[in-house]
């Protein structure tokens, strides 16, 4: 469900169709198909943006660009950040979607469950824990991020480009979580 009108793909104008196709081309294969834990009839977050095609394209193309394979983070990293930000924000739709996308990437239900329940005790590498601690801090209060946070990330192997990528993915998910919840995406 979304609390605003959405436009189905088969009813899309040429502008909307182009925005949907352009955005979709930037996304990984894991994003195709139904999302376990969500009603297939529920319009997703992309559909909730269909009334403003250019906003749809630019909003979702931003995240698509941040998942480019030539950037430092892996697909696992992208989805772990998405899941932790969405879980921290209690965004039901994005938490369910990105838990499923992470599951499709790592093929490990136990890891996904551990991250959702208590990421601080999940079986992940120190590099991943530092990355998720940082993403959660950005989500909870970015004004408390200091150079020490970046030093910690550098200490586990992130360069400045990687730190920027983590920051932008975390910030983007804070935006999209709020849009999803405010528009009723996945809410009853």
From TrEMBL:
One protein family per Pfam: CMD
Domain Carboxymuconolactone decarboxylase-like: 56-117
Keywords noted in UniProt: Oxidoreductase, Peroxidase
Record GO terms (molecular function): peroxidase activity
Listed name of the protein: Peroxidase-related enzyme
Natural source organism: Paludisphaera mucosa
Lineage of origin: Bacteria, Pseudomonadati, Planctomycetota, Planctomycetia, Isosphaerales
């Amino acid at each position: 469900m979304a609390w605003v009108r959405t436009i189905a793909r088969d009813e899309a104008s040429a502008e909307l169709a182009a925005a949907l196709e352009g955005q979709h081309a930037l996304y990984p294969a894991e994003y195709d198909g139904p999302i376990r834990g969500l009603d297939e009839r529920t319009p997703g977050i992309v559909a909730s943006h269909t009334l403003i095609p250019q906003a749809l394209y630019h909003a979702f193309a931003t995240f698509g660009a941040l998942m480019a394979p030539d950037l430092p983070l892996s697909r696992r990293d992208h989805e772990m950040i998405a899941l932790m930000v969405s879980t921290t924000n209690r965004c039901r739709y994005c938490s369910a979607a990105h838990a499923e996308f992470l599951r499709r990437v790592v093929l490990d239900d136990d890891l996904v469950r551990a991250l959702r329940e208590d990421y601080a005790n999940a079986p992940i590498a120190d590099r991943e824990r530092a990355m998720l601690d940082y993403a959660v801090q950005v989500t909870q209060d970015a004004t408390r991020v200091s150079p020490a946070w970046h030093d910690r990330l550098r200490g586990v192997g992130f360069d400045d480009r990687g730190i920027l990528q983590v920051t932008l993915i975390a910030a983007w998910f804070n935006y999209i979580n709020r849009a999803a919840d405010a528009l009723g995406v996945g809410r009853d």
